[in-house]
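Customer escalation, tier 2.

The customer says the design service returned an amino acid string that "doesn't look like it belongs to this structure." They asked us to rerun it and document both sides in this ticket. The original C-alpha cells are below, unchanged.
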C-alpha cells in the first residue's frame, strides 16, 4: 500500500512538473510572438511619423510660415491705408500660395490588427492608437477641403476683385463687413493636425517600446531586441512639436486594459 501511494505521489508530481514545463514553454512562445508583434507595430508607427514629418518639412511648415508673414504685412498695409486716406486700400499686393497637396496613406489597418488583436496593451496605447488614426484622417480631409477651395477659387477668380481676394485669403472683413475665415482656418488646421500626427506617433512608439521591454524582461535574456523609433535626424530641425502640450495623454493609465 505504501509503495502504491509512493508511486502515485511520484506520478502526480511528475505530471505536475510536466504540466508546468508545458505551460512555461507555451507562455514563452506567446511572449515571443507578442514581442515580434510589438516590433512590427513600432515599425509601422514609425512610418506614420516619417510620413507626417516629411509633410511638415517639405510643405506645411513653409505654407504656414509664409502665410503668416504675408498676412502680417497685409495687416500693416491695411493699418497704413486706414491712417492715411491718401493711400489706396489695395496698396498691398501679394501672391496666393495655392499649391495643392495629396492626402497621404497610412497603414492603420495593419497597426490596428496588431495592437487590438495581437497584444494585451494599456488604455494609453489604445487611446493613442485611435487618436492618431482619427487625427490622420482629419488631416487628409482638411487637405482635400483646401484643394476644393482652391479649385473653386480658380474657377471664379475673374469675378473676384483685389479686396475680395484679400478678404477670402486672409480672413479680413469684406466690403459688406462680413468675415470668412475658412481659408485661414484651413492653414492653421492643417499645420496643427500635422503636428498632432507627429506627436501622437512619437508618444505611441515610446509606449510600445516600453511595453516591449516589459515583455522582453518576462521572456528572459534571449529575448529579441526591442525596437525604438529613431528621430535623431528630426530632432535637429526644430520642427518637432512640443510634447508637453500633450501631457494629458500621458496621464491616461499605463496599466493593461481589462
Amino acid at each position: 500500500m505504501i509503495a502504491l501511494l509512493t508511486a502515485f505521489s511520484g506520478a502526480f508530481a511528475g505530471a505536475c512538473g510536466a504540466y508546468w514545463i508545458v505551460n512555461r514553454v507555451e507562455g514563452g512562445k506567446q511572449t515571443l510572438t507578442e514581442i515580434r508583434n510589438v516590433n512590427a507595430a513600432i515599425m509601422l508607427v514609425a512610418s506614420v511619423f516619417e510620413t507626417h514629418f516629411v509633410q511638415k518639412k517639405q510643405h506645411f511648415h513653409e505654407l504656414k510660415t509664409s502665410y503668416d508673414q504675408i498676412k502680417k504685412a497685409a495687416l500693416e498695409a491695411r493699418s497704413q491705408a486706414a491712417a492715411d486716406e491718401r493711400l489706396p486700400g489695395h496698396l498691398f499686393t501679394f501672391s496666393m500660395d495655392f499649391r495643392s497637396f495629396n492626402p497621404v496613406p497610412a497603414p492603420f489597418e495593419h497597426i490596428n490588427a496588431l495592437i487590438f488583436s495581437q497584444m494585451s496593451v494599456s488604455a494609453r496605447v489604445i487611446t493613442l492608437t485611435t487618436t492618431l488614426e482619427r487625427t490622420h484622417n482629419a488631416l487628409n480631409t482638411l487637405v482635400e477641403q483646401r484643394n476644393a477651395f482652391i479649385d473653386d477659387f480658380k474657377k471664379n477668380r475673374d469675378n473676384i476683385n483685389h479686396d475680395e481676394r484679400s478678404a477670402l485669403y486672409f480672413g479680413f472683413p469684406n466690403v459688406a463687413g462680413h468675415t470668412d475665415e475658412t481659408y485661414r482656418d484651413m492653414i492653421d488646421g492643417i499645420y496643427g493636425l500635422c503636428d498632432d500626427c507627429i506627436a501622437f506617433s512619437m508618444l505611441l512608439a515610446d509606449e510600445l517600446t516600453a511595453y516591449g521591454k516589459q515583455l522582453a524582461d518576462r521572456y528572459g535574456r534571449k529575448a529579441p531586441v526591442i525596437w525604438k523609433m529613431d528621430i535623431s535626424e528630426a530632432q535637429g530641425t526644430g520642427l518637432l512639436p512640443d510634447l508637453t502640450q500633450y501631457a494629458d495623454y500621458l496621464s491616461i493609465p499605463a496599466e493593461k486594459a481589462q
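Tier 2 assessment: The sequence is consistent with the input. The chain has one domain: 32-250. Residues 2-83 form the longest helix (82 residues). Sent an explanation to the customer and offered a walkthrough call.
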